[in-house]
Amino acid sequence: MTKKGCQPFAWPLVFLFLLSAVLTGCGEKSPPASQEVSGNKDSDKEQLTGELNLFNWSEYMPDSVIEKFEKEYGVKVNYSTYSSNDEMLAKINAGASGYDIAVGTDYMVEIMRNEELLEPINHDNITNLHNIDDQFLDKSFDPGNEFSVPYMWGGAFIAYNKDTVDTLITGYKDLWKPEFKNSLVVLDDQRVMLGIANKMQGESMSSVDPKVIEKSKELLIDLLPNIKAFDSDTQKTMLLNGEAKAGIVWGAEAYLAYRENPAIETVLPEEGMYLGIDCFIIPKAAPNKRTAEAFIDFVLRPEISAEITEDFPYSNPNKKAHELIGDEIMQHPAVNPPDEELKKGEFLKDLGKAVLDYDRAWSEIKQ
């Protein structure tokens, strides 16, 4: 019995075919393990390890996406979470080993790049990078995206329950009103909260002026009687159960609260909002770097990226995914703020040594 593809022909053709078979094994012999086959999905999978250690915020990666990656690539994903950029940096800086991929906000990418805590990303393995809108690429915190790939972006908004709040809210400053005593949920994030207080003074969110930082500390101490809880994970819960009348919250949390209760309104603060781009990064000496790059590329597929936004509706830099995301999400101001509001917003920057002043101020606020 002859193999399929090796049927008998006229002798000259048989001779040529047999010669080709000797050289190629009738096309059935795999290339040596050391060779890479460009664009060959199965070959790509062979290069991956069987495990991926993902370090991320909670409520920021759907289980369904992780399960799809595990099934398609035969990789077990170990998912660990943190509550802030500072917590993530502290763990990695303290020598926490084993993380293959993490998510850091723009200014944190710059810090970690400067401290040589990151592995460069091989763009040859990120074939879906072209799906990212150009406005989110090649930013000053990581020129050429050598160490980072955009994942999601968004801002810090004001959300309030219009059924329980009588006062007009136009900006962050209104949350200092006595009406909000013991009824606010705010982000447990020193850079964002102190940055907002800086902004209220008409200063940069990343001001390094000790006088500005001190004044911001005093402003936030004055706000403490109104704060029910510091929470960077699930602010929507307190808005929905009535524990909080209002809050400074992530955009996705504002939208999700609105989706469950249309009385939850979003305010784009007149002072100008905090903005941030969250990026995939690979910590130095990651044991499964190639698998981390495969995961990044997987997430950048339009259908996968859209699935993430449907579950956790942060602003999405993946322009190809926008066509697959529901109109209600895409048109909500907490998910896609108008351009004129974005122009008033501000991204954070590396503070250098002034970060110690912020650390000290935050400790005195939270003591």
Automatic annotation (TrEMBL):
Major location category of this protein: periplasm
Span of the signal peptide: 1-25
Stored CDD domains: PBP2_PotD_PotF_like
Localization: Periplasm
Keywords: Periplasm, Signal, Transport
InterPro entries named in the record: SBP (IPR006059), Sperm_putr-bd (IPR001188)
Protein name in the entry: Putrescine-binding periplasmic protein
Lineage: Bacteria, Bacillati, Bacillota, Bacilli, Bacillales
